[in-house]
Write a structure and sequence with these properties.
With 195 residues, this protein is mostly helical. Among the domains are: 5-55; 69-116. The chain is built from seven helices and four strands; from the N terminus they run ααααααβαβββ. The protein has helices spanning 5-17, 22-32, 42-55, 74-86, 92-99, 103-112, 130-147; strands at 116-119, 163-164, 167-168, 175-178. The strands form two sheets. A two-stranded antiparallel ribbon has the order 1-4. The chain has a two-stranded antiparallel ribbon with strand order 2-3. Helix 1 (5-17) crosses helix 2 (22-32), helix 2 crosses helix 3 (42-55) and helix 5 (92-99) packs across helix 6. The longest helix is centred in the last third of the chain and has 18 residues, at 130-147. The chain is elongated and about 110 Å long. GO terms for molecular function: nucleic acid binding. This is DUF4817 domain-containing protein. InterPro entries: DUF4817, RNaseH_sf.
Amino acid sequence: MAYTNEEYYDMLMALGECHGQYHVAARRYTELYPNRARHPSARVILRAAQRLHETGSVLANKHDTGSNREARNVRNVENVVHSFEDNPEKNIRVVAREQDLSYATVQRILKEEKLHAFHYTCVQHLRPEDYQRRKTFCENFLTEVDRDPRFPSRIIFSDESLFTREGIYNSHTCIIGATKIPESHDLETFKLIGR
């Protein structure tokens, strides 16, 4: 918590009374104001005097503190946007590492550019070449049921529509950054880039 103007004034008065000796001024301040919640160290008094001499104010310049605000410059914004235009399936962490930016900065850039993450949604879709295979499957299934009425009870039908070599497909691990929903229908499951 910053000191008030009144507290800084009292520090400088104590410093003047002690002829510029900061350690003595810190002890004198404690003697003069024993009921105050906090007492400055010699270093605080020294910095207040230096700021007054250099800037004309004892208050700290809060505008020069914090992290570098130049991360979202035009060049970085263009680089991030081009990176996602070249490969919309790219991961934010990967782009942040490649561009030497923080994850939050890349997120802010994407938000400002109105680029949103879209998750693939797996839908069952029959292609023209699938119809004959489905028909054959159904005919074979009915033939087996005619031979053995308990045949369906020995089959496990899963509700998962897509399996990969790595296991069940998870749509949350594959994100595309775009301003509109992609119209991609074919999905090469073994070349997905997950996060």
